[in-house]
Amino acid sequence: MNKRDAFEAIANQAARGILAFPTGAQVALKLRQTLNDPDCMLDTAARLILAEPLLAARVISMANSVVYNRSGREITDVRMAVSLIGFRTIQSLAMALVTRQMAGRSSDPKCQELVQQLWEHSAHVASLAQVIARHVTHQDPEAAMFAGIIHEIGGFYMLSRAAHYPGLLDDDFTDWLEFGEVEVGRAVLARVAVPESVTAVIEGFWDGFLAMPPVTLADTLLLAEELSPVPSPLHRLKNAEEVSSMAASIEMLIGEETLTRILGESAEEISSLTKALQF
After folding, report:
1. Do 274 and 144 share a domain, yes or no?
2. Tens digit of pLDDT for each residue in 96-149?
């Protein structure tokens, strides 16, 4: 089976609702569902988070980021961290754990490398989207970060299936973008119960049209994707001319206050958010 046929097979199965989630993703998904319950109390959330060390570490790290902890006092207590960053951010971190666990634990070094780069890319995009939403597009920053976390969730699922399709990870992923990304992405987003409003943002990302100036959440996500210092290993790399053209457009789209200046002033925030999302 060639790569195109393999991607189509994965997409066709996903479209029919045949999705095999790794055990770690299933556990993380159940945790997320509990945390998303509107009746989930602070103490309950803290106990659940403490039972999942990976999530607990990220919650503490997020609470100590400059975005959420302006006082600079170190926070080490999970309950206090939950109270500080709020349930929406907790839900985003829980979804980050689901997304990161989606690829499973492959013994293939190539797969491990792709998963690591894809997650680093996702963390950068989520952090940039949060900052861009606050300072540039004036959209909901929490929704922007959430969209950034999950915008490659279909790719993580595809990587989890690599062991079943020899040669799937060879060469580039042009066929994945054409024959699998959208179909698999939609199926996974539906299975993990992502809100329709956020799914619409991801659909806008797949469409790939970045308005100038950017105004919507989809624009926010696309701009964060363009600015990420770590590219997605599943997308085509841009050549120097394309990068230069995009950089020139970005410099002009904000008007008097350039995006470069905004991002420079927000560099510490972006760095701390990215660090907090590194599972």
Report:
1. yes
2. 999 999 998 888 999 999 999 999 999 999 999 999 999 889 999 999 999 999
Which residue in the block uniquely carries the two structure tokens 């699922």? 157
Examine the domain organization and report whether 199 and 85 are in the same domain.
no
Tokens of 151: 């915008």
Domain ends where: 101, 128, 161? Answer: 101
| CATH number, position 143 | 1.10.3210.10
Cα distances (Å, whole numbers) of residue 83 to 63, 66, 104, 211: 9, 16, 31, 37
Give residue for tokens 């961290």. Answer: 81
Of the three residues 85, 101, 117, the one that is the final residue of a domain is 101
Domain shared by 144 and 212, yes or no: yes
Strands (E), 124-192: none
Q: Are residues 71 and 115 in the same domain?
A: no
Nearest to 175 by CA among 13, 10, 18, 17: 10
Q: How many residues does the chain have?
A: 279
| Residue written as token pair 């103490």 | 43
Distance CA 165, CA 3 (A): 8
Over residues 43-48, mean pLDDT: 91
Q: Are 104 and 160 in contact (CB under 8 A)?
A: yes
Residue 238 sits in which domain range? 1-17+108-279
Q: Interior CA angle at 115 toward 204 and 218, to 5°? A: 15
What distance in Å separates the CA atoms of residue 167 and residue 236, rounded to the nearest whole number? 19
Neighbours of 68 (CB within 10 A): 18
- What's the rounded Cα separation, in Å, for the pair 6 and 191? 21
Number of domains comprising the chain: 2
